[in-house]
């Protein structure tokens, strides 16, 4: 379905045609063929094949992925504005997202957008003398680039390279898809829904999260948020009917389920981002409850879809990279703040279950490991905070323990708030070494709080501020944490 969605209706014919000229194949066609084969082998690995065949498919997929990287590294600086070049760049971007490399995907998507604009794919006048089939392919490619661009811009906090005022073609396209069982499907309804969601994503960044939007008056941002929230709610309501239109993939039905679940989560994340941009403003209480409900919806949808990560390595990586990491996963941080404000045990458990689910997919990428560790550290400290507050309020409620707790986090917390132990002084040599070394990234505003590991690099998460408006989220608990030093019998450890 992925290849069909970008106009590659007969991939067998494409491969045969290019394999006849292997001695003189261009870098972009090498990327195109390698990307097609990569997706074929990865999808084939999900068919319940034998262990030996699975290992063979994964080895071939790994080789094809390496070939994609080689082809991308050898691409010329200037590419002609052809449909084949755009297809190659798009497939290269898809493979990059599969590898948790959104910055690379953004570079490829930006180049593809420049080729589309240079060729006039977005212009009615530029298509006047072209055949209907050429126009169909060009619009398939342009709108695919547009959809990917809007998601990556929100993910990386970068402006779109496709100006809306340059587009005068209808916001619709369709592609031929044969599911192998019921024949060719009409996809116009599906793609129209995709475009509406992407247009909303673009407006979320432009009106709420861009540098210009952050400097606009609060009243203006609230007005934009209300309009965008209405659109996002409408999309969520229509999603159930829309998802019934998805054609079944006879060869890899689990991919269709990943598409459906991922789409529902992304729509909830979009709504959360809209509400969060306003509820995080100083003095603004509007949308606060709605923001929490949207975040809960995203987290609960994820909770009921964790079985997808047990199907196989490719299903797991596809779900993580295209659902959890593809756009800013703000729901976690919204629920975290809500827990700190309300001491909600149910929501704390929701956070813990989210972290536990990600712990089974840490082999997907280092990017997920870092995100998981960030979430785990913050949830550990939030649990400590809730425990302190409940004890001070003489509550009998028990705070659930984090599953698979991070030993280094517990050690840091016990070192900071040790019970019946005097703080140990650091040797002078160690102090000097600490002064010479770069400081770790601190979770909160106080450098005495647990820090992230030295190898932590926020830029690898993308430059999007996933906790917009919550920069001092841990400062909410500073005063309460200090009380621990005066309560040696708190019994928290």
From TrEMBL:
<dbReference type="GO" id="GO:0006351">
    <property type="term" value="P:DNA-templated transcription"/>
</dbReference>
<protein>
    <recommendedName>
        <fullName>Xylanolytic transcriptional activator regulatory domain-containing protein</fullName>
    </recommendedName>
</protein>
<dbReference type="InterPro" id="IPR050987">
    <property type="entry name" value="AtrR-like"/>
</dbReference>
<dbReference type="InterPro" id="IPR007219">
    <property type="entry name" value="XnlR_reg_dom"/>
</dbReference>
<feature type="compositionally biased region" description="Polar residues">
    <location>
        <begin position="424"/>
        <end position="433"/>
    </location>
</feature>
<dbReference type="GO" id="GO:0008270">
    <property type="term" value="F:zinc ion binding"/>
</dbReference>
<keyword id="KW-0539">Nucleus</keyword>
<dbReference type="GO" id="GO:0003700">
    <property type="term" value="F:DNA-binding transcription factor activity"/>
</dbReference>
<feature type="region of interest" description="Disordered">
    <location>
        <begin position="424"/>
        <end position="443"/>
    </location>
</feature>
<dbReference type="GO" id="GO:0003677">
    <property type="term" value="F:DNA binding"/>
</dbReference>
<dbReference type="Pfam" id="PF04082">
    <property type="entry name" value="Fungal_trans"/>
</dbReference>
<feature type="domain" description="Xylanolytic transcriptional activator regulatory">
    <location>
        <begin position="105"/>
        <end position="176"/>
    </location>
</feature>
């Amino acid at each position: 379905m992925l290849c069909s969605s970008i106009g590659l209706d007969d991939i067998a014919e494409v491969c045969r045609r290019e394999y006849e000229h292997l001695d003189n194949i261009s870098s972009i066609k090498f990327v195109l063929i390698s990307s097609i084969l990569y997706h074929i082998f990865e999808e084939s690995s999900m068919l319940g094949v034998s262990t030996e065949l699975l290992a063979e498919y994964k080895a071939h997929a790994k080789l094809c992925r390496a070939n994609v990287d080689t082809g991308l590294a050898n691409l010329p600086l200037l590419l002609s504005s052809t449909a084949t070049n755009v297809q190659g760049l798009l497939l290269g971007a898809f493979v990059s997202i599969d590898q948790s490399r959104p910055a690379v995907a953004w570079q490829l998507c930006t180049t593809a957008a420049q080729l589309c604009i240079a060729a006039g794919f977005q212009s009615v006048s530029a298509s006047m003398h072209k055949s209907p089939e050429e126009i169909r392919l060009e619009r398939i490619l342009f709108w695919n680039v547009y959809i990917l661009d809007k998601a990556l811009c929100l993910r990386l906090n970068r402006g779109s390279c496709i100006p809306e005022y340059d587009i005068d073609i209808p916001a619709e396209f369709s592609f031929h898809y044969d599911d192998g069982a019921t024949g060719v499907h009409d996809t116009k309804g599906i793609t129209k829904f995709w475009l509406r969601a992407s247009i909303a994503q673009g407006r979320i960044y432009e009106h709420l999260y861009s540098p210009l939007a952050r400097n606009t008056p609060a009243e203006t941002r609230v007005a934009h948020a209300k309009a965008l929230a209405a659109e996002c709610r409408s999309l969520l309501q229509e999603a159930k009917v829309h998802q019934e239109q998805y054609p079944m993939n006879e060869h890899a039905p689990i991919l269709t389920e990943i598409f459906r679940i991922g789409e529902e989560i992304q729509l909830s994340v979009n709504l959360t981002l809209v509400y969060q941009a306003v509820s995080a403003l100083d003095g603004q209480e509007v949308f606060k409850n709605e923001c929490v409900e949207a975040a809960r919806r995203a987290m609960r949808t994820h909770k009921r879809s964790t079985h997808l990560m047990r199907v196989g390595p490719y299903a797991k990586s596809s779900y993580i990279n295209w659902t959890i990491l593809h756009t800013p996963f703000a729901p976690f941080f919204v629920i975290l703040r809500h827990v700190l404000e309300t001491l909600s045990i149910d929501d704390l458990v929701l956070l813990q279950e989210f972290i536990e689910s990600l712990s089974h997919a840490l082999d997907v990428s280092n990017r997920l490991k870092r995100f998981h560790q960030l979430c785990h550290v913050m949830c550990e400290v939030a649990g400590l905070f809730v425990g302190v507050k409940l004890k001070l309020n003489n509550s009998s409620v028990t705070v659930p323990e984090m599953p698979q707790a991070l030993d280094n986090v517990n050690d840091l917390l016990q070192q900071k708030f040790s019970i019946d132990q005097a703080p140990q002084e650091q040797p002078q040599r160690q102090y000097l070494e600490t002064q010479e070394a770069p400081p770790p990234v601190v979770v909160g505003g106080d450098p005495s709080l647990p820090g992230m590991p030295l190898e932590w690099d926020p830029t690898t998460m993308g430059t999007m501020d996933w906790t917009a408006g919550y920069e001092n989220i841990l400062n909410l608990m500073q005063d309460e944490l200090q009380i621990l030093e005066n309560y040696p019998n708190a019994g928290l450890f």
